[in-house]
Amino acid sequence: MLRDISTLKDRSILVTGGAGFIGSHLVESLLAENVVTVIDNLSCGNRDFIEAHRNNPNFCFLESDLLVPCALEKALAGKDMVFHLAANPNVKLYAENTCVHLEQNVIATYNLLEAMRKGCVKKIAFASTSTVYGEAAKVPTPEDYGPLLPISIYGASKLACEALISSYCHTFEMQSWIFRLANIVGGRGTHGVLFDFIRKLKENPGELEILGCGKQKKSYLEVKDCVRAMLCSVKKSGEQINVFNIGSEDCVDVTEIANIVSRQMGLDDVAYRYTGGVEGRGWKGDVRVMQLSIEKIKQLGWTPQGGSAQAILAAVKALLSGS
After folding, report:
1. Are 251 and 209 contacting, i.e. CB atoms less than 8 angstroms apart?
2. 290 shares a domain with 236
3. Which residues are catalytic?
4. Is residue 170 part of a domain?
5. Domain encompassing residue 292
6. pLDDT greater at residue 55 or residue 191
């Protein structure tokens, strides 16, 4: 066991992608007891998400890219740990550019691990994804499910990152926490089904295009609950490689999500138009059913504060209010 229960107190921590959706919420929590440096190229992040910390002496922001190794080495100087959230989060983007997830996920992670090795930074927490499981035959899906056969290039790139992290831990005596996340929703969300539905309904309140057949069922978790799970796992698990599913204990289908969004926008007579997709999927690479087993992380004392529908409702309210 390599447990160090003081890992997240009085430490100097680097958060990659810290100006992004999940990253900015994580930064808020870490700043309560730590010195935090954010590195973000702002391609998906937003400077406004971290503006409140600008005058905090324990906060530093570096606008740079993980594809620039020298910038990484500077950012890692004196750091005790890295939370690695930088990635391109657009699961559907690979159809337009098959290289983007290789560069922004896999190569960026390799560059980070190399800079950590050279700088003797030994601890990394990584935001992976439920899509590494592909279309799992066992639902809810546990962490030891296999073989892992992702059906999207995004999922494949995250699985490759997990493999790189595992190999660096074993080869260079590092320690890691790998989070396989369900669909995380909440304020500051910049992509995904909620963001898309709100945008479409603002453009046309009478009709909503729904990708696929509407019966795709997935698990959703509110972002603050996600951050709480991430911090809990780092504080309370101390193996060399710690893998945790993070999600809720149920799932909802896309049509029900459309109903929740429509009601919150005060729209009663929205006509739903389903695209049919590919075999009911919203797009090639879209997993039709996803629910994670979270028994492992629950044993550490964390439980989700609500189900998928509650998370979606809270997220829609936050997105509509701009909070």
Report:
1. no
2. no
3. 154
4. yes
5. 186-218+250-321
6. 55
Distance of CA 218 to the CA centre of its chain: 15
Regarding whether 106 and 21 lie in a shared domain, the answer is yes
End-to-end CA distance of the chain: 41
C-alpha span between 16 and 37 (Å, rounded): 8
Q: Between β-strands 35-40 and 59-63, what pairing exists: parallel, antiparallel or unpaired?
A: parallel
The contacts of residue 219 (CB under 8 Å, 6+ apart) are 130, 182, 183, 247, 248, 249, 250, 251, 290, 291, 292, 308
The residue written with tokens 């509407």 in the block is: 214
Q: Are residues 175 and 281 located together in one domain of the fold?
A: no
Average confidence (pLDDT) over 16-24: 97
Alpha carbon distance 227, 304 (integer Å): 11
Q: For 161-184, what is the mean pLDDT?
A: 98
What percent of the chain is modeled with pLDDT above 90?
Answer: 86
In the chain, pLDDT over 70 holds for what percent of residues?
A: 96
Report the pLDDT value the prediction gives residue 141, as an integer from 0 to 100: 98
Q: Which residue has the tokens 């309904």?
A: 201
| Average pLDDT over every residue of 226-246 | 97
Return the pLDDT at 34.
97
Whether the predicted pLDDT of 65 surpasses 70: yes
Q: For the chain, what is the domain count?
A: 2
Helix locations, 51-179, DSSP H: 69-76, 100-101, 108-119, 153-172
Residue 89 sits in the same domain as residue 174 = yes
Three-state DSSP at 226 gives helix
Confidence at 277, pLDDT banded by 50, 70, 90: confident
DSSP structure class, residue 107? I
**285 CA to centre of own chain:** 17
